[in-house]
Amino acid sequence: MIVEVLYFAEFKDITGKEKEKFEILDNNLEALLNILFEKYKLRSIIWDEKNQKIHSLISIIINNQAIHKKDPLLIDISDGDTIAFLLPVSGG
Amino acid sequence: MIVEVLYFAEFKDITGKEKEKFEILDNNLEALLNILFEKYKLRSIIWDEKNQKIHSLISIIINNQAIHKKDPLLIDISDGDTIAFLLPVSGG
Amino acid sequence: MHYNEDFVKSGIYNKGEIVLESIIKSVKANPKIKKVGSIHAFTGIVRDSSINGKPVARMKIDAYDELANKSIFEICERLKQEKGIMDVKIVHLKGEFELSEDLVYVVVASAHRKEGFDVISKAVDMYKKEIAVWKREDFNDGTSEWIH
Amino acid sequence: MHYNEDFVKSGIYNKGEIVLESIIKSVKANPKIKKVGSIHAFTGIVRDSSINGKPVARMKIDAYDELANKSIFEICERLKQEKGIMDVKIVHLKGEFELSEDLVYVVVASAHRKEGFDVISKAVDMYKKEIAVWKREDFNDGTSEWIH
Predict the structure, then answer these.
(1) For residue C5, what pLDDT is reported?
(2) Which segments of chain B have a pLDDT < 70?
């Protein structure tokens, strides 16, 4: 299935893109993270090594809705989903 | 001697004027008040009958300076002075 | 002191002589603008009811210009001494005003927003108490009252 | 709902798309304007130093428009429920900004000034915490940092 990832702030600077489509085989977030971490230096920002889950300060947004689970295996994704990982906001 | 009186707010409405020159004979405010009270219905606004002095809430301004005495006999005026009686302010 | 052409002096103006935009433009032309992070603006306008609920049809503002200009200048200078405050402008209009027309502008430029919010609220309290300006409310029933 | 041509929607705009004047004009076109006695405006601009004093040369603002617009809408609707508040507008710009350029506008219209000062300060606190917008400070020394 195909999902689209939106990049903001650091993520945009690191990837050099605003958004990008990925083909993944499993219907959970882990499959996507593996591809992302292989392609870009994003692991240290997104991944909490100690607790083996997504960092608590990262907001996971799927189809413009916040997801509150942090274990990628528990986060289902479907074909056509739009996904974003957000660092804490800082309005002007 | 000649003094000029400036009218603001109620005073302007009551006198129908912005300012007016008066000739007075004595060099204190009482002489001016007598003329003013004779010409316009200003006595009830300016004069504190009970205490026989200028109402405490009236500011007396001579040549753009506030005068803190309220007994008109004690307030000296000179030829060419500009005098105003002000009610409490009310900015927009 | 040398000012550029955008400079707006605080004080009493006739209705129609000045708009908020010019005052903000003047604040932005202040040489200290690089230190500013927030610009706060207050506009007082004519409301359709007096403080005790009486319907208001229009309003008149009278001012003793020399005295009011002196007090406005003093308020601005005093508040510009406060920490983190780069500019303070107070412009009060006078004349006859219809409902919703602008009566007064206060603009404050500050390094950080906290100080700016504090000082603009203080500036409004001060001009309302200290400057030689009076308002007359003309009510819907044809009567009028100078407010004190 | 029918809006007149002056209507400005709160939300994320590109730098240069909108000015404070238009937002105030929109607030003045609100049908409830007759009940309004004060209009409060906050403008956030680029300051020449970061919160810890590092010299800033310019700034970049990025936004997740759909999310940010949703949060901005919710903040405005929530605050418009407060007593005496007739209108609340939040406009956040995005793009690349030089020193002293406008980044964000908040405009609040209230019956009385006290409520207006309270709500505009609340609105600023809320947008800073709740909307999906990020700023990158580009320092004089050539380094950059996204602020979180």
Answers:
(1) 76
(2) none
